[in-house]
Amino acid sequence: MKPVIIASGKVRPVAVEKLQSIADFRMYAGGGQPPEEMWAAWLQEADALYATGNIRVDEALLAKAPKLKVVVQSSVGYDNIDIDACTRRGIPVGNTPGVLVDATADLAFGLILCSARLLHVGWEHVKNGAWGRRKSMGFGVDLANKTLGIVGLGRIGAAVAARAQASRMKVVYHNRTQRPDDAALGVTYVSFDELLATSDFVLAMLPLSKATEGLFDRNAFAKMKPTARFINVARGKIVDTAALQEALQEKWIAYAALDVTDPEPLPGDHPLLTLDNIMITPHIGSATVETRDAMAMLTVENLLAGLAGQPMPACVNPEAVQKKA
Ligand code: NAP
Asked: Same structural domain for residues 223 and 143?
């Protein structure tokens, strides 16, 4: 009997091909939430779940999936998955750290650059036949000799730091724990408050968790320089969106460039979109052909290892397997 593998959203063709060859593979490709009745029937039979960010993997879902042996997701973040609930049931959860570092760091640095030089605004001028009126854009600001403060200097944060250093920026960072390799990386550890007060660009690059939800609130924005540019490539919910809107409107900070928002997708009539000191991309940090294929194939490797009861290449809760044994 082939295992039943279900996917709650679209999976890259390269992974679909592999999964179809070894399993009864069912994929919901309609966008949004899978239809309730169909999804419940799939969960009932599923040996493995290829989860996507549009669903929550929680107690309620797990209770409907009595045969489930493994959950995998093609992302490094897993804030939509209740890891404790999976661990309690002995279900390992696989994610995709590492393979998306460069693509996401490129996007983050692109947003830093756009917030400084307004490339997107320049293009709008040209497209609208307003080249001659480009002075209305004003001037941008240099990256060289400015301070980039990275909150969450992990794999992606370190890769952004390297890009920023190539533009001759100084990099400071804040994690819960100082990195032992920070001198080698050429970055300086500071407190959260010092980072906010001294950075010209503040990049949020840390995971969403109970501790980080709403971390960037009125207090945080009030501590930043009025010339500061805030960039979020982590998760929308680490920012209090109303506070960010106030900070931009009242010019507590100069600019925001976001790849992630709360909510997502951002509705077309959202008040943030009425501001002229913000730019937003639609959560495309890892969205390149090569990276998405690499993420999908790592997800498949995780899934196959999980089904076989073997250690996954990238597992969030390896203790789940011991629990089951
Ligand atoms: P990572 O290597 O685990 O790095 C996360 C860093 O955040 C660590 O250095 C960690 O250091 C720090 N951190 C964790 N909790 C913190 C807290 N409460 N306060 C301060 N620092 C904290 O993860 P990564 O691979 O770089 O990815 C980071 C996040 O980026 C992911 O979780 C994901 O949500 C997001 N992401 C977004 C996209 C996108 O498309 N926009 C793409 C990929 C990833 P300590 O443990 O010492 O605190």
From this structure: yes
pLDDT in tens, 240-279: 999 999 999 999 999 999 999 999 999 999 999 999 999 9
**Is the CB–ligand 1 distance for residue 157 below 6 Å?**
yes
Does residue 46 sit in the same domain as residue 77?
A: yes
Ligand 1 atom 1, closest CA: 154
CB 207 within 8 A of CB 152: yes
Question: Tens digits of per-residue pLDDT, 277-321?
Answer: 999 999 999 999 999 999 999 999 999 999 999 999 999 999 998
Q: Check pocket membership of 9 for ligand 1, CB cut-off 6 A.
A: no
H/E stretch holding 63 reads helix 59-63
Identify whether residues 302 and 205 lie together within a single domain: no
Same domain as 217, residue 311: no
- Answer yes or no: do 114 and 258 share one domain: yes
Does any ligand 1 atom lie closer than 6 A to the CB of residue 97? yes
Cα angle vertex 212, ends 210, 217, to 5°? Answer: 120
Residues 106, 93: one domain? no
Asked if 290 is an active-site residue, the reply is no
Give the range of the structural domain holding residue 275, as residue numbers without chain letter: 101-280
Residue 259, classified by CB atoms within 10 Å of its CB into exposed (0-12), middle (13-18) or buried (19+), is buried
Counted domains in the chain: 2
The model carries a pTM of 0.95
Are residues 204 and 131 part of one domain?
yes
- Could you tell me which residues come within 8 angstroms of residue 287 by beta carbon, excluding any fewer than 6 positions away? 103
Q: How far is the CA of 306 from the centre of ligand 1 (A)?
A: 24
264 as an active site residue: the answer is: yes
